[in-house]
ABC1 atypical kinase-like domain-containing protein (mine drainage metagenome), 564 residues
Amino acid sequence: MLFARFRRFTRAVEHAQRYRTIVGVFLKYGYVDLAQHLPLSRLWIWLRSHPLRRGASEIGALSRPERLRRAFEELGPAFVKLGQLLAGRTRLLPRDYTDELVKLHDQVPPVDFREVEALITGELHQPPDRVFSRIDPKPLGSASIAQVHRAISREEGEVVIKVQRPDIERIVHVDLEIMMRIAELLERNLETWQPHQPSAIVAEFARRMEQELDFSAEAAAMERFARQFEGEATVCVPRVLRALSTRRMLTMECVDGVSASQLEALDAAGLDRREIARRLGNLTFRQIFVHGFFHGDPHPGNIHVLPDNVICFLDFGMTGFLERSVRDKLAALLVAVARKDEREATAALVHLAGAELEPPKPGLEADIAEFIQRHFTGPMKDLVFPRLLQQLLRITARHSLTLPPEVFLVIKVLGQVEGLVGALDPDYDFLEQAGPFVREIYGKRAQPGRIMRELLQFGGETVEALRALPMDIRRVAAQLRDGRAAVNFRVEGLRPLNETLERTTNRLAFAVVLAAMIVASALVIHSGIAPKWHGIPVIGLAGYVFAALMAATLLISMVRHGRM
């Protein structure tokens, strides 16, 4: 434990400058309560006065959620991406925060083109002009992790190159380490954060960031998505040029189209907005409810429309996957809600959260019944599908139910697509169009072929378990006979006691070292060892001074925690 603590401390010192920047930004935007839980931050808080107190009226006029969004934007790509993830976590943050974090944007000034050329040279192990006859120095777009350039390949013709920003991987990894440290501190120091498991959220976020930083994973996602809709004339995915792609560089065919949000440009190109909305909605539902593998960030910049109303998906840095079992559970929940069956809907929600073995949740069924009564007694066309799911999330949060992480991404995707198709066609009924796909999944559960496959699989697993049972019984009997049987159990509510014992042990060790320091200093002074200052041995005097500082530190710690 001591080694782990020492290692965490050395990492904090190693990243001290970044910690200082983070503390400074949180202080600047008035988040002293959060900043003070960062390592070494109390010293920095003491050294610099609060900007709001120094008359920063512009910042002071902002709401607390607005200040959090500004802080995330100032801290860079990892924090922007984290904010976008938190925007979908309604059980973790109040609605005014999630509504504000949705506004986070990921646009930054482009890097110098010479750095882009240097990166391409390093990735392809040859000068860019050997591979490309021309690369446009002006990027098509510049985000926090990468920027995109149009180019002409000597073999493939017109292409688009996505290149990673220099040193971004190291910067993101440092921020991820710091985020994990902050999450651990919040869990340990603020009881209100413990049920939300911030460490688990950061771990999930780190996995997504690793995926975004690996362009070879994005290339694989593009190819998988293309295979998923192979042979369909209504959807397009740019072809990946594997020979010109690496972990930090992605080259794909150039596909020119009109952004799905540019309504006037769509009309000028003779494209049918109603048909685009219908196709985009259907493609989204098929991704999520039929295939399970879906585009994780379908904002207007990533959806282009080609001639004949063909939908082209771009930027597969974020994708999601719903296992069949999760799709089945989600479909069962939506069907039960649509049928206004609160009992079945409650059971489906508990099943989706994997809480079947937990004690019944008092009031959960009543909340579901109230939810159905509020939203499903009026015209269906007035319902907002993603908002319904957000309301269900709030119910799960109220009853301490934890849904699979991918469900949050599904809700984010549905919200983005609903906003886009609503702009394309105000009469588009999102819930009605989703119905057939949900009912199809729900109906497939009763198909004879699937039931037979599941029975065969269950039978095979049962036979294997029965085959292993005699050996398991003999193993347990042998452990009981030899006295080697162990029972693992956990007693809830011991965390405060553990913290008290750990703090007491640390203070006791500190006091022993302090006593040893005083005794050693006394022996040195008594021996009269040179060098001396005014007749007193300098080494002994220094020991006394150091011991006094240690004693003061111990005393301050005890006073601050209210335990003398």
In short: Confidence is low (pLDDT under 50) at residues 43-47, 49-55. The chain has five domains: 2-104, 107-255, 320-444, 446-475, 497-560. The first helix runs from residue 2 to 14.
